[in-house]
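Example record for the data management plan.
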Amino acid sequence: MKKLFFYILGLTACIQLQAQETIYPAKPQEGRIYLRNATIHVGNGQVINNGIIAFENGKIIAVGSDVPVPQGDVKVFDVNGEHIYPGIIVPESNLGLTEVEAVRSTNDYVEVGDINPSVRSIVSYNTDSKVIATLRSNGILLAQVVPQGGLLSGSSSVVQLDAWNWEDAAYKTDNGIHFNMPRLMARGNPFGASAPGPSGDAVKAAMERISGVKAFFRDAKAYLAESKHKSTNLKYEAVKGLFDRTQKLFIHCDLVKEMLVAADIKREFNFDVVIVGGTDAWMVTDVLKEQGIPVILNQPHSLPVMQDDDVDQPYKTAAQLQKAGILFCISNEGFWQQRNLAFNAGTAGAYGLSKEEALSAITLNAAKILGIADKTGSLEVGKDANIVVSKGDILDMKSSVITRAFIQGRSVSLEDKHKQLYERYKYKYDLN
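Corresponding structural encoding:
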């Protein structure tokens, strides 16, 4: 009876997940579009008052305060003093790889085993996820989709959030390999037993696992140096881009010791390394700057790791990295929480960053770190027309109301499951 209950519960959840609302990907841009009478936040620190932005065939063709608007077959939208921003970029998420965390059949973000660099997150990306629209309606237009689990969890890809399938969604495929560094901290046990590990030493066990990853990279280097192979090794082939620097190695770690190990990996293999997490990055800015290692700050709305840190340390870390000249961007945890990314940046703006620096932390800086700054991240001529229009400050939860969004020039829907349910129950209880 118990098994039957859980079977019916799972079946019901799957049916609900497959239900389709009338939210469709937009058709390609037609004609030339002008947005005028706007405050334009370029994303690189520049602000244009009473500005005009024009785009055609998905590309920005003009932006400024004196852009002429021709007569004839063009679409002109007067946004009445609203704010125009670059589309927000989520730099690290399992968006589209999971739908309901409690329903196992909707989770496809982790593979069995520790060393899985050949796993590609992009092929599991579900464009029909109901979560995607909730991010889009908050101004988030692109995301890096990241696999999880093990040590080397696989390759990530950047997607745009308005597509019929993963092939259409792909914005930059297989741009990085992800290494989840074991925690170099001995954890206390409330029952008095020693920490888990071969010899009861958790840090030693973690270092042994890290050594195993380094050994894998050394073997891969030797394999890739061969002119011919007796047999193809898919795992070694998958990290070829790390050695020719067409891919980045995203190292997920938080503590000072862990980031020093990350710097050592960069020195030994000359990889293009990015720190993901970076809770204690403010303590090793000299090392990060010397090695040219950028940081994806994860979950600023959290408590500090160490008991003797300032309680507001996660809020002000971004400003400390900015002052030290470290390239960084801001992320959040999980998938549905990413809809609050702009407000995380707003908090950083209240703790030392300027408003435009905070904006860059979720737009241009993220694009630079993900290797897509040539196409997006700022509102500049020649880049993709990934544009968000808001009635108020997009970093402020109270004033941010997204009125329009364009991905590669396409006017995308701002409807989502939340809005539809809101309207449904307004109607039910006659609250219109």
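Summary line stored alongside the record: Confidence is low (pLDDT under 50) at residues 1-20, 190-195.
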